[in-house]
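Quick sanity check, Unconventional myosin-XV:
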Amino acid sequence: QSSVPSLTSEPDSIMLVPAGDRYTMTDFAIAYFREAQSMQGLNGISAEKKSAATLVQHTKVPIQESLLQYADSELNELATKNFRTLMQFMGDQSKLKNQNEAECIYEILQLCKEKESLHDEVYCQVIKQVTHNPNQESVLRGWLLLNLLTGYFLPSNILMPYATKFLQLASSDPSSTHHDIAKTCQSNLRKNFMYGGRRHLPFPVEIEALLKGHGARRLAILMPGGMEYLTRVKTFTVAKELLQEICEQMGAGEQEEIQEFVLFAIRNKTVRPIRSEEYLHDYLLEDKLVTVTLRRLIWRTPLHFENRIYTDVHYGQMLWDYLNGRILLSRSKEMEMQVGILAMLQHWAKTEQQNSDPSREELKEYTPKTLQSSISPQALQSYVGMLLRSRQPFQPVDAKIQFIEHVMKLPFFGYNIYFVERVSDNTIPVPCFCGVNKEEIIVVDGTTQAISCVIPLKELQKMRTLRPVSDGGLPGIELNYGSAASPKTMWLELSQAKEMYHTIVVILDQTELHH
């Protein structure tokens, strides 16, 4: 008997679908199936191939040994047990008492998660059971499982060309009932290869929805300015695909600009940016308490205002940031004049307010919360009144564009701002602010707005989040930066430590792509 190569090596760096009639599952069975090894030497090659073909075809009888050869008897046992679970799920064998279909799927996926060396075995078992299977309902179930397998677990680089060939053949036969799902499996495998598989196994609700034929979940993305974008998220949709879809609707179809937008998952008060290659379903929990929002995180590409939704989204984000302290504003005479101009533009941005003066209540709404106590309402009212009398009102869309352009000139525009309560450098007065943009991390004095410390992102060597030191204490983030010759460390304590950490990761990802 020839020795069987190991099937647990890493995937190659590229994924190609083999051409011609090589790499069929029968070829794989001849080379690697346990039973094919004992068939070798049958009357000639074609007889051998014919007999081997039956090894990758549906069977009504449970297998007594694993399809692939394993030296470890435990793996052999787990493989045969898995085949019985597979047959129960596909309806080829009766289920155990109280066992439902979702549990069967979960059991198979859980096995793959725990035993990487069984990935190829499970792939071969499912491919065998959907090949030449006379029962259409059973075939459909097998493909449904293959759909999940391809998105979660990769076959080894030995099985990969055979599995891709199998999917290619299945998807190129338009007469078959499963050519669409085979195409989805191909796409899943490609994503899994490029980004890794989904991290969390599906919740029972998601499996049950798939079993009922619902392959996508409705999701409302909360856009800046209060708009909602309604979409459907498939089992293996990655953030990148959803961002592309939303940005195209906004008239921002260029890749460079799309990469500057990020989706955030918010649950209770935990905010987490989703990296572009992460799967949406890894964040969408069963309880529907997760809100997904869109924000522009990086401001490298010039803005363009030919699309109304694009303008509204940017205006909505900048307005919220400006009014809620996400843009640092100094307390100065010059700033008071800026507040007046921005109040006037906000007033004009409301369709119904074109020809009226804002009331004192409205002016308060137009003033950033951090400055409300230091700006005199009377002085602001008379200054805005004077501005309104000396100018022709803008149309709402033009007022929004003017507002955006004004805000972009503010000194700390473009930084993601975090409120920091403690810092390891005792020369920095606390509380203070920390800002992160596409180039650097800055620490800013909470009162004077002077910059106390600058860490260029290219000097950041390592960072980690820190657990609170005591009960009720704040989490932190530790930054290691500088050169090998002169390493430096700084830690900050802030309630948004995790959000800040993941935001820096996303910015670093994007910067890498940009270069």
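Posting the structure with no commentary besides this: Residues 351 and 396 are 6 Å apart (CA to CA).
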